[in-house]
User: Which sequence fits this backbone?
């Protein structure tokens, strides 16, 4: 069972929240594709040596953590330019290619719907996954997750979500603010997939 | 040629702008589906939710379209519009009568030049570029749609 975890991953705290929830799913034996975890794949091994040579990373720090993670943290937090370490820049084309491949390989989507609207990247992924699902029985559905208090307050009225996006999700899943329901549903889908194979 | 006209349609002026553009498209022989113009008739005894009715109306129109014109203005792309772009991209992969997506972009918060704003979402922009083009004026967008219309008319039998 592979899950694509979509969400507004632009700030450190949202990325942490997504990673935390992905970790819960991983503890349940579910494979999770997290888009922001893919970025560091662009970091070539030489970039670690360059960062050490420039004094950005202490040699001894490398003993405890993978060097590529340390380098990517420096880049993401604006302490060094990616190109200065020889890391190829992310382009819209490369982001779409990597994430669309992750989406296409997934059996389900968990989408974090927080924010004043559903994040546009997340919404696009919801639409693409739904359209793929219509001709792919190995795809089980989309589960929307809301932690945003403005949405939770309106849980009975569709969480205050865009009607079309909500309609797409409800064609093949539902929206909740209880992550335990999401874990249970993914495990049920996992069992269905295993029974089919 | 039928096109699906996606865009933020929540304020009177957004709807007016889309309707104005739709009139120009019609003068060029292009047939746009405009979500807010489509009659949402209340059928007695219809138990569908509002979201379901919105989905049924709009998804069927997307599935029946040869191209999509999407207004991508705003601090970010409207979520309904972004979702429709994702749907159309996937449907296109298996349907040669679907020619592509034209984004209409005229918002200085999300253009490439430095300044206020954070740019267009990379995933959605990558998707649009893979499926079509980003235009900055309605004239440019119409030129692209007309080129696709001509392709459909000439190659319809073979493609």
Assistant:
């Amino acid at each position: 069972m592979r899950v694509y975890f979509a969400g507004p991953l632009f700030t450190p705290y949202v990325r942490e929240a997504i990673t935390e929830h992905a970790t819960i799913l991983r503890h349940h034996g579910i494979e999770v594709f997290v888009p922001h975890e893919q970025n560091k794949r662009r970091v070539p091994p030489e970039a670690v040596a360059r960062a050490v040579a420039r004094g950005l990373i202490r040699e001894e720090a490398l003993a405890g953590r993978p060097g590529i993670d340390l380098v990517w943290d420096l880049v993401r937090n604006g302490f060094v330019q990616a190109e200065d370490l020889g890391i190829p820049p992310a382009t819209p084309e490369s982001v779409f290619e990597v994430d669309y491949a992750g989406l296409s390989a997934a059996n389900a989507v968990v989408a974090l719907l927080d924010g004043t609207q559903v994040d546009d990247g997340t919404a696009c992924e919801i639409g693409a996954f739904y359209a793929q699902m219509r001709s792919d029985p190995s795809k089980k559905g989309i589960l929307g997750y809301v932690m945003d208090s403005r949405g939770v307050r309106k849980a009975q009225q569709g969480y205050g979500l865009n009607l079309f996006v909500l309609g797409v999700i409800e064609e093949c899943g539902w929206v909740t603010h209880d992550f335990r329901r999401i874990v249970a549903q993914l495990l049920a889908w996992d069992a269905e997939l295993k029974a089919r194979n | 040629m039928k096109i699906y006209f996606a865009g933020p349609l929540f304020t009177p002026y957004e709807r007016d702008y889309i309707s104005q553009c739709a009139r120009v498209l019609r003068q060029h022989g292009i047939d746009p589906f405009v979500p807010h113009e489509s009659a949402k008739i209340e059928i007695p005894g219809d138990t569908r939710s509002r979201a379901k009715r919105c989905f049924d109306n709009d998804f069927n129109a997307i599935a029946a379209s040869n191209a999509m014109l999407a207004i991508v203005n705003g601090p970010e792309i409207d979520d309904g519009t972004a979702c429709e772009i994702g749907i159309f991209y996937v449907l296109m992969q298996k349907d040669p009568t679907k020619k592509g997506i034209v984004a209409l972009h005229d918002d200085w918060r999300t253009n490439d030049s430095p300044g206020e704003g954070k740019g267009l979402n990379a995933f959605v922009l990558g998707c649009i570029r893979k499926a079509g083009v980003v235009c900055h004026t309605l004239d440019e967008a119409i030129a692209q749609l007309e080129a696709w219309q001509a392709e459909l008319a000439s190659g319809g039998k073979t493609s």
Helices of chain B lie at 12-27, 50-63, 79-93, 122-131, 138-155. Strands of chain B lie at 2-6, 31-33, 67-71, 100-104, 132-135.
